[in-house]
Specification:
Blueprint (H helix, E strand, L loop, with lengths): L3 E4 H11 L1 H6 L2 E7 L3 E4 L1 H17 L5 E10 L2 E8 L6 H4 L11 H5 L7 H11 L8
Parallel strand pairs: 2-4
Antiparallel strand pairs: 1-3, 4-5
Helix pairs in contact: 1-3, 3-6
């Protein structure tokens, strides 16, 4: 990875723009709240990180639900949040959702597609960039 300065506000806007059709298909509103900020990293990997988080938030949401993606500087760091009104993740599964191939409920998830590696990719990209990821 050759790190470059990445404009995270623009990257969030670009990524969410690419997911508008999917959000419309799932009847989910997709909003952003961005403040200009930059990080040093691999732009393509960071795009994939944002895309995976947003795609999950859309796919596992409720009809007429919403997804809010925000990125803001805070205490010398950049905080990216993806908040949704989706089906949720039971507390007993939250510690494991970033493991490869881990799925909380295979029967429920099979209708939504996916392989169970998206959040493990998110975790790896975040760690490669010196960050942390968690879910609540």
């Amino acid at each position: 990875m050759q790190p470059v300065r990445v404009d995270m506000a623009s990257l969030v806007e670009e990524c969410t723009d690419s997911l508008v059709i999917s959000a419309d298909k799932h009847k989910v509103s997709l909003e952003t709240d961005v403040t200009p900020c930059t990080v040093r990293g691999d732009r393509n990997m960071l795009y994939e990180l944002i895309y995976n988080l947003c795609d999950n938030a859309i796919r596992y949401n409720k009809e007429n639900g919403s997804v809010l993606v925000s990125v803001k500087p805070r205490d010398g760091k950049v905080v990216l949040k993806v908040k949704d009104t989706g089906i949720g993740i039971p507390k007993e599964h939250q510690a494991r959702i970033f493991e490869r191939f881990y799925r909380t409920d295979a029967s429920r998830n099979s209708s939504k597609g996916g392989s169970g590696i998206g959040l493990s990719i998110v975790k790896k990209i975040m760690e490669d960039h010196g960050g942390q990821v968690w879910a609540t």
